[in-house]
Specification:
The complex is a heterodimer of chains A (324) and B (328).
Chain A lengths: L1 H29 L2 H6 L5 H11 L5 H13 L13 H36 L4 H15 L2 H15 L12 E3 L2 E3 L4 H34 L2 H8 L4 H30 L2 H6 L5 H10 L3 H29 L1 H8 L1
Antiparallel strand pairs in A: 1-2
Chain B lengths: L4 E12 L2 E13 L4 E5 L6 H8 L7 E10 L2 E2 L5 H7 L4 E4 L3 H4 L6 H12 L4 H14 L5 H4 L9 H13 L5 E5 L7 H18 L2 E6 L2 H7 L2 E6 L2 E7 H6 L4 H8 L49 E3 L4 E3 L2 H8 L3
Parallel strand pairs in B: 3-8, 3-9, 6-7, 7-8
Antiparallel strand pairs in B: 1-2, 1-4, 4-5, 9-10, 10-12, 11-12
Classes of the chains: A mainly alpha (324), B alpha/beta (328).
Chain lengths: 324, 328
């Protein structure tokens, strides 16, 4: 297990190197730090002098290594718009997105697993068919439409829930959380439902199809032949095997959710990473964009490494390969 | 004496979109306590389905459409799900064809053994472990204490089949149904597993239904065999008698098809044609299109499985009626 973990971490570092290289290339090609700093009223000769001073005329690789060295220390440059280090701008916004994704993940896990199992065990029941039908609808409706419909019903018509923002927040160290106030929770409900609206049906379908496949296997038939209780067969024998592919997909999807909260955050004016990203694009804030890409890259790599480790815990065959 | 198991005119159908398909058509046989019987036939003859029907584990959309299955005097078809569960794995155990697929890959051997015991008996983990160890020793698994905490992928195919046999023996069942237990194994391992199965069934007085297409396997282990063709039993009786003197033309064909030393350098005999698709079973005797001895009546009337005193066995063949009055 230890060797397995170390190898996964090494792979993660390699992936980060590739991401950083791509990010730097983007910045190198489309960004102009001199413009960011001096604006338009400075002469060409002065600009050239500044470029030399900042090392922008150095060879590409030299610049990359310098960029990498700074990035390791958490310095990916200054945001042109905020006039602050890009990383700190991003980290200040991260709690909003992470909380949103966290609540959405919980909704997805606690709704998709029971429903998926139910549909797999009773594929012919009417309720299963209704769930499967609705899940197709859910997958097909784009997030922003779901979000708008939710706002219309619960905010505009029923006045039950607020339609935008994070509500009342509490500052704990660097983390501004909405999870400690009732108002914060109220603001979280609609965005997290909207964000889970695509993944949830997807996971119900995934769990159902995986579990139905597992239920057809010989070892499940053997479990029946052993006279085990049906609950044990479904929830221990079948579900544990169903989980393996679901964990893999789930890991990738979790990363994707963090990266692509953009639509949800825009509709709900949620001051998180996705919202920040859209603003950065509009302001052509290249440094911020690159920092965002790097941060999302790190999140992806960390999440996937964790998922692989969890997978290793569930699947005994992975454990063995890792220990050799 | 009451039979351990008795099948009476069991019909198994599969509900398909194009209508019902009869996979097993009126099979009857009985098995005494401690008796070992072989169910032989080509793939699709209905032998596995018959085996699975006994504990009502036919894969959907199959179902038992009529007939009775009596086990220790009780009709299994009339039992509730829970009553059946108590019999499965407890009084009747199964051994499957492919040991690579039979054990759950994410659970340890120990878990898979203990859960079986605890599903049927109210015993502690320690007691269950003790019984599991004892059974693993019985199937000659070396250092069973270490093996209990291992996962199925850490065992070879032959070892896994031994473990499956140990699981089947856990609750000291009265009957074991083994569905092609050696087909997926190497020839050398096959012999070991068969010897083991035979030895255990004899010492524990366990009844055995051995489902196989391999006549050599049947003759090695069983006392009685039933040869199946297209969902029906065509010949049934004492194993050595049937193997040495098959009467039904199909059984004769099967035995002639076995490679033997007298045929060295010659083509192997084979039964011409294929077993009919269950969708289109020929009228009359389902074997008649392939039968070398067929007469006019074969295509019109389904032959009944009748007991022939002279051959001391049951055969379902029109020609047999003539033969039995003749010189044989």
């Amino acid at each position: 297990m230890f060797a397995f973990t170390v190898r996964r971490i090494a792979q993660g570092i390699f992936v980060m190197l590739v991401i950083s290289f791509l990010c730097f290339t983007i910045q190198h090609q489309i960004g102009d730090p001199v413009r960011d700093i001096v604006g338009i009223s400075v002469s060409t000769a002065e600009r050239e002098a500044l470029r030399d001073k900042m090392g922008l005329n150095d060879p590409f690789l030299t610049q990359y290594v310098r960029f990498l060295g700074k990035a390791v220390h958490g310095d990916v440059g200054m945001s042109f718009f905020f006039k602050k280090p890009a990383l700190s701008v991003i980290l200040a916004k991260a709690p909003a997105t992470l909380e949103l994704v966290f609540i959405s993940s919980i909704i997805i896990i606690f709704v998709s697993i029971p429903l998926g199992i139910y549909c797999a065990i009773n594929p012919r029941k009417i309720l299963s068919r209704i769930i499967m039908g609705l899940s197709i609808v859910g997958v097909s409706i784009p997030v922003f439409l779901t979000a708008i419909i939710l706002i219309y019903i619960f905010s505009v018509e029923l006045h039950w829930l607020p339609s935008y923002g994070r509500g009342q927040l509490v500052q704990i160290g660097p983390w501004r959380t909405g999870l400690l106030t009732l108002d914060g929770w109220k603001h979280l409900i609609l965005p997290s439902i909207a964000l889970s609206s695509i993944m949830l049906p997807l996971f119900i379908r995934l769990i159902r199809s995986q579990m139905m496949e597992v239920l057809e296997t010989d070892y499940i038939k053997f479990a029946w032949a052993k006279g085990l209780h049906r609950k044990r067969i479904w929830f221990v024998h079948a579900f544990k095997n169903t989980l393996l592919p679901v964990i893999t997909v789930g890991g990738v999807q979790l990363g994707t959710m963090i990266a692509f909260t953009i639509l949800t955050e825009t509709v709900f004016q949620w001051q998180g990473l996705g919202f920040l990203f859209i603003e950065a694009v509009e302001r052509a804030d290249t440094t911020l964009l690159v920092a965002y890409l790097m941060v999302v890259g790190v999140i992806f790599v960390v999440v996937n490494t964790l998922v692989d480790i969890v997978y290793g815990l569930v699947n005994p065959m992975v454990r063995i390969q890792g220990s050799k | 004496m009451e039979h351990l198991l008795e099948l009476q005119d069991v019909v198994i159908r599969f509900a398909l979109r194009s209508g019902d398909l009869t996979a097993v058509d009126g099979v009857s046989f009985s098995l005494n306590r401690g008796e070992r019987m072989g169910l032989v036939g080509e793939s699709g003859a209905g032998k596995s389905v018959t085996g699975f029907s006994i504990i009502d584990l036919i894969s959907k959309p199959g179902y038992i459409s009529s007939g009775r299955i009596l086990f220790e005097g009780k009709d299994l078809a009339g039992l509730s799900e829970e009553e059946l569960r108590i019999i499965r794995g407890n009084r009747i155990s199964m051994i499957f064809q492919d040991p690579m697929m039979t054990l759950n890959p994410v659970l340890t051997i120990g878990t898979q053994m203990v859960e079986t015991l605890q599903a049927h008996r109210d015993i502690s983990d320690e007691e269950a472990h003790g019984i599991a160890l004892e059974k693993l020793r019985k199937v000659h698994i070396p250092s069973p204490e270490k093996r209990l905490i291992q996962y199925p992928h850490e065992f070879s195919g032959g070892m896994r089949q031994r473990i499956v046999i140990a699981i089947a023996l856990l609750t000291d069942p009265a009957l074991i149904i083994a569905d092609e237990p050696t087909t997926a194994l190497d020839v050398t391992i096959q012999a070991e597993i068969l010897d083991l199965l035979l030895e255990l069934c004899e010492s524990e007085k366990t009844g055995l239904i051995l489902i196989t297409h391999d006549l050599a396997v049947v003759s090695q282990v069983t006392q009685k065999i039933a040869v199946m063709y297209a969902g029906k039993i065509v010949e049934m009786g004492d194993t050595t008698r049937i193997i040495s003197q098959p009467k039904h033309p199909y059984t004769q064909g099967l035995i002639n098809a076995l490679p033997g030393s007298e045929h060295l350098g010659k083509r192997l005999n084979q039964i011409p044609g294929m077993m009919p698709n269950l969708m289109s079973i020929p009228p009359g005797c389902s074997f008649h299109p392939r039968c070398p001895l067929r007469v006019a009546v074969c295509a019109q009337q389904i032959p009944e499985l009748l007991y022939y005193e002279k051959f001391s066995r049951e055969v379902a063949c029109h020609v047999m009626e003539q033969l039995s009055g003749g010189d044989l």
